[in-house]
Specification:
about 400 residues; Nucleotidyltransferase, domain 5; 8-stranded mixed sheet; 6-stranded mixed sheet; 14 strands; binds adenosine-5'-diphosphate
Length: about 400
C-alpha cells in the first residue's frame, strides 16, 4: 500500500508517501512557515531522489494539503490511505484508529489538553477529508502506547477532583517512537516482545524515557504535558513546582510568559546560555577546562537526569532485558550514552561498538558479559504511522 503520512504542526506540515511493502519513501517533504507574515512559505520535497524547493502560497493548512495533493496528482502517484500523527488521544485511544466523525469529535475534545498540537492535527485531518474525500484516514496518537500505565503511575498527588474535573493525570508522549523501538528491539534481540522489559530512551529535541514491562508502557517521564521529566533542548523537565509561582510573583509575569520560559528558554539552552543543539554542547564538554563552563554543566545535568530515571525505572521493573537509545542524540552520541551509563555494575559498555554505532544503524553496544544489554535502535515514527495505517485499512 502507498500511505501518505501527515504530521501537521502549528506552522508547518511534514509529509511522506511510503510504500509499505518495501518501506521505501517515495516522496518526502515539508511545507514550512504556513500563514506567515513577511517571509514566504516554502515547500521543499524529495521525489524519487530529486530535491525540489519552491516558494508557495500556503495561507493555511488546507492550502498546504492542497500543495501536497497537487504533487501527488501531477506525478501520477497513488495514495491508498492517509496516516495522521495526532499528539493527544486523551483517555480514549489505546491504539491507532480509522478516522470517522466520532474520532474527530474526540480529537476536538482533547484540543483542551494539547492546545498547541491537536488543533493543527485536526485541521490536517479535515483538510485531507475535503481535498481527498475518497482516501481513508487513520489517526496514530503519541499518547496511545502509554494508556497501559497503571493508575498509581499516572496519578498526581493533588486533590482528586482535578483528575475528575479536568483530566489532570500523566498521559505521556513520544509513544509512537517508544512502541516502535520496543518492537524492533525485541525482534533484533530475538525475544518475545510480550516478555520483554526495556527502558527506552528517546533523546531528541524532546526527551523522554519509558519503562516497558512485558512489551507495554508501565511508566514514562513526560506527564500531563511534554514538559515533565528529563532535561530537554529548551524545556526544563522536573523542577520544584513552586519555582514558577515564586518567579511569577517576583517578576510579575503572566501565565503565558512563564509558560514560554519553561518551554522555550529552559533546558540545555537555559543552563548553557549558548544553544539547545547537543552537538555544540558536547563540543564544549569535550574541550574540558578550556570549554564553556555552563555548557559543561548543562551536559552533566542532562546526562545525570537520564541516569537517575534509568535507575528508578530499573527498580520499578525489577528486571531489565535492555536499555535502548534512540532519536537524534540517542542514535548519534556515543559520548552521551557512555556518560549516562558509566560505572554501573549492571552495565558494561563496549567502547569500540559504542563509538562506531551512529544514526540509522541498530547495534548492541554492551559487552557480552554485561548483565543488562544496551542497544541503539533507530526510531522511525513515519514508518510506524504508515504501518499502523496499512494494518487498519487492510482489516
Ligand atoms: P526531534 O526530537 O525534533 O525529532 P531529533 O530526534 O532529530 O529531533 O534530535 C535532535 C537532536 O539531536 C538535536 O539536539 C541535535 O543536536 C542532536 N544530534 C543530532 N546529531 C547529533 C550528533 N552527531 N551528536 C550529538 N547530538 C546530535
Amino acid at each position: 500500500m502507498n500511505i501518505l503520512v501527515i504530521n501537521s504542526g502549528s506552522s508547518s506540515l511534514k509529509y511522506q508517501l511510503i510504500d509499505t511493502s518495501t518501506e521505501n519513501v517515495i516522496l518526502k517533504g515539508l511545507v514550512d512557515k504556513i500563514g506567515s507574515v513577511g517571509t514566504n512559505p516554502t515547500n521543499t520535497y524529495t521525489l524519487n531522489g530529486n530535491k525540489v524547493s519552491e516558494n508557495v502560497l500556503a495561507k493555511d493548512h488546507k492550502d498546504a494539503i492542497g500543495i501536497v495533493s497537487k504533487i501527488i496528482i501531477d506525478n501520477n502517484l497513488k495514495v491508498d490511505g492517509i496516516g495522521h500523527r495526532v499528539v493527544h488521544g486523551g483517555y480514549k485511544f489505546f491504539e491507532s484508529v480509522v478516522i470517522d466523525s466520532e474520532v474527530i469529535r474526540y480529537i476536538e475534545e482533547f484540543c483542551k489538553l494539547a492546545p498547541l498540537h491537536n488543533p493543527p492535527n485536526l485541521i490536517g485531518i479535515l483538510s485531507c477529508k475535503e481535498i481527498m474525500p475518497d482516501v481513508p484516514q487513520v489517526a496514530v496518537f503519541d499518547t496511545a502506547f502509554h494508556q497501559t500505565i497503571p493508575q498509581y503511575n499516572y496519578m498526581y498527588a493533588i486533590p482528586f477532583r482535578y483528575y475528575e474535573k479536568y483530566g489532570i493525570r500523566k498521559y505521556g508522549f513520544h509513544g509512537t517512537s517508544h512502541r516502535y523501538v520496543t518492537y524492533k528491539t525485541a525482534e533484533f534481540l530475538n525475544i518475545d516482545v510480550n516478555k520483554a522489559n526495556f527502558i527506552t530512551c528517546h533523546l531528541g529535541n524532546g526527551v523522554s524515557l519509558t519503562a516497558v514491562k512485558e512489551g507495554k508502557s508501565y511508566d514514562t517521564s513526560m506527564g500531563f504535558t511534554p514538559l515533565e521529566g528529563l532535561i530537554m533542548g529548551t524545556r526544563c523537565g522536573d523542577i520544584d513546582p513552586s519555582i514558577p509561582l515564586y518567579i511569577m510573583e517576583k517578576e510579575n509575569l503572566s501565565i503565558s510568559e512563564m509558560d514560554k520560559i519553561l518551554n522555550r528558554e529552559s533546558g540545555i539552552l537555559g543552563v548553557s546560555g549558548i544553544s539547545n543543539d547537543m552537538r555544540l554542547i558536547e563540543e564544549e564538554y569535550l574541550k574540558g577546562s578550556e570549554g564553556n563552563e555552563r555548557a559543561r554543566l548543562a551536559f552533566e545535568m542532562y546526562c545525570n537526569r537520564i541516569r537517575k530515571y534509568i535507575g528508578a525505572y530499573y527498580f520499578e521493573l525489577g528486571k531489565v532485558d535492555a536499555i535502548v537509545f534512540t532519536a537524534g542524540v540517542g542514535e548519534n552520541s556515543p559520548i552521551t550514552r557512555k556518560k549516562v551509563l558509566e560505572n554501573i555494575e549492571l552495565v558494561e559498555i563496549d567502547d569500540e561498538k559504542n563509538n562506531e554505532t551512529v544514526r540509522g544503524k541498530a547495534g548492541i553496544i554492551s559487552k557480552p558479559s554485561s548483565r543488562i544489554k544496551v542497544v541503539v535502535m533507530p526510531t522511525n515514527e513515519e514508518l510506524a504511522i504508515a504501518l499502523d495505517t496499512e494494518r487498519l485499512l487492510s482489516k
